[in-house]
Write a structure and sequence with these properties.
With about 100 residues, the protein is an alpha+beta fold. It is built from 4 helices and 3 strands; from the N terminus they run H-E-E-E-H-H-H. The protein has one domain.
Length: about 100
Amino acid sequence: MGRFAGHNVVCDLLGLPMLPLKIDWYTTILDLRPWGAVCTAGWDRHVASTGVEAKRTKELINRQRIYPPRSGDRREILDASAPVIQAPPPFFLRA
């Protein structure tokens, strides 16, 4: 959602058309520190994953998906900011 928000803010400032956001899947992941994590799937938030597996998913999101590449390469950073919806986490596909 952040990619779309950033894109649409720039478009709004420049008077360009904004992109609609449509998400077919939704997940909430809560990190419970040393106890692991809990992941819910869908708008009704049914529990899809807990413990170590959920913690790995949360770490993947926090360490790779939401941060720009650390290479400093401008093209790589701009490509990573493209307003696309990423694939759901692996646990979601099983839910």
